[in-house]
Write a structure and sequence with these properties.
Blueprint: E1 10-16, E2 23-30, E3 34-42, E4 48-55, E5 66-70, E6 87-92, E7 99-105, E8 108-113, E9 122-126, E10 142-147, E11 162-169, E12 172-178, H1 183-191, H2 199-206, E13 212-216, E14 224-229, E15 233-237, E16 241-245, E17 264-273, E18 276-283, H3 285-292, H4 301-309, E19 322-325, E20 333-336, E21 345-354, E22 357-364, E23 377-380, E24 386-389
Antiparallel strand pairs: 1-2, 3-4, 4-5, 5-6, 7-8, 8-9, 9-10, 11-12, 12-13, 13-14, 15-16, 17-18, 18-19, 19-20, 21-22, 22-23, 23-24
Helix pairs in contact: 1-2, 3-4
């Protein structure tokens, strides 16, 4: 029997030979819909283990959100510890919602979450690694460092936040937020249905462009979080709309939410390369322009079209943004603001250093356009980047 199966939702994990690239086997892990980063850790006793978070839906605590440890072998990747999965549960986020990104930092995992119905999305850290790593007998426990309700003055909109990309850079933890499909408005309407009578105003004021934060964990008892890009004041609703200072009382150190553009919704991917840190966004500007041009978006059309009409007030450059941080005391430098010339490149989906090169993979709205369709792969050896595959 599969100890992780509780429903018909699932993710798939595939194993390939690291040298030949040959496919070995795959496994279906039921009851999960989200899986992001695998991390291999060398423990204090010299042993190594690979960990991964598997999670449920956005803003859901109805399904489990687990930290898994691989217990298979190269010969039998999905066998071990008496199960046909090849993984053991070594941590449970409970009602904190889905774990998303994770990094190792000073003997712990630091992770971001998507939150649940009752717990806002946030930044967490685990208990220290045991000498042999986390096991079912010595599982990880999780402590909150910061969450959206510590920042957003509207407690209902705070529940719409998702926290995504995460990276350590020069001793600090950088992390960003995600706001898809007008979710702030949707959260508000569930709490205050009368807002439907003033929906156009509410859709715009409940919208949040991506924010970027930096947390100093050197003092474990008093973590310090700064706002690097974001809003000093945000609209909040309590029977009427008022503009309120964020709960950190912080002005952004470097710039506005979304790095300027209104429709930079997501700080999606971060990665270090050659003493710098790169950050790629998910930008919905081209999609919003298509909606404004009467593309059918069915049930959510009214919310999205209202946001798209607001795009005339913002900088509209279709295609993802890619930024580079060269130090902790300087703002980001733009590497591209238009998806490297392809407006269908809506996001930086992944980044990985291989040898001396940084590879960047895009996501896209399009798959059949002869010139712009399909995701793209870029390689950075020295600026500028060049496209190496379509």
């Amino acid at each position: 029997s599969n100890p992780l199966v509780r429903s018909d939702k699932s993710v798939y994990i595939l194993a390939f030979d690291g040298e030949s690239g040959e496919f070995i086997d795959g496994v279906k892990l039921a009851n999960y819909i989200n899986v992001r980063r695998f991390r291999t850790i060398t423990h204090a006793d010299g042993s190594e283990a690979m960990y991964v978070f598997v999670g449920s839906e956005m803003h859901s605590s109805a399904h489990p959100n687990h930290l898994l440890r691989w217990v298979g072998s190269p010969e039998a990747p999905f066998k071990g510890a008496g199960n046909d999965i090849g993984f053991e549960i070594v941590g449970d986020l409970g009602n904190a919602g889905s774990g998303v990104e994770l990094i190792e930092f000073e003997g712990r995992f630091v992770l971001t979450t998507w939150g649940s119905e009752t717990v806002p999305a946030g930044l967490y850290q685990t208990s220290p690694f045991p000498d042999g790593g986390f096991t079912p007998e010595q599982p990880a426990s999780f402590g909150k460092i910061f969450d959206a309700a510590d920042f957003d003055p509207d407690p209902v909109i705070a529940r719409s936040w998702l926290i995504g990309a995460l990276e350590e850079f020069n001793g600090y933890i950088y992390w960003g937020a995600m706001f898809p499909n007008g979710q702030g408005f949707q959260q508000l309407v569930m709490d205050s249905p009368s807002l439907l009578f003033g929906a156009r105003e509410a859709i715009i004021k409940a919208h949040r462009s991506t924010h970027l934060f930096r947390t100093d964990l050197r003092d474990k008892n008093k973590p310090k979080t700064e706002l690097l890009y974001g809003k000093e004041k945000l609209w909040a609703y309590n029977g009427q709309w008022t503009e309120q200072t964020n709960l950190l009382g912080a002005r952004p150190v470097f710039g506005d939410a979304g790095f300027g553009p209104f429709f930079n919704d997501y700080s999606w991917t971060m990665g270090k390369y050659r003493d710098s840190m790169y950050l790629g966004t998910f930008a919905v500007s081209r999609g919003m322009l298509a909606i404004r041009d009467e593309t059918d978006c069915q049930l959510s059309c009214f919310v999205l079209r209202t946001l798209s009409e607001h795009a005339t007030l913002a900088k509209e450059v279709p295609g993802f943004d890619l930024y580079r941080f060269d130090s902790t005391d300087q703002p980001a430098v733009a590497v591209t603001l238009d998806g490297f010339g392809n407006p269908a490149n809506n996001g930086v989906r992944n980044a990985m250093v291989v040898g001396d090169d940084l590879y960047i993979g895009s996501s896209t709205y399009s798959n059949i356009d002869a010139d712009q369709g399909g995701w793209e792969l870029f390689k950075l050896t020295a600026p500028p980047l060049k496209r190496v595959a379509d």
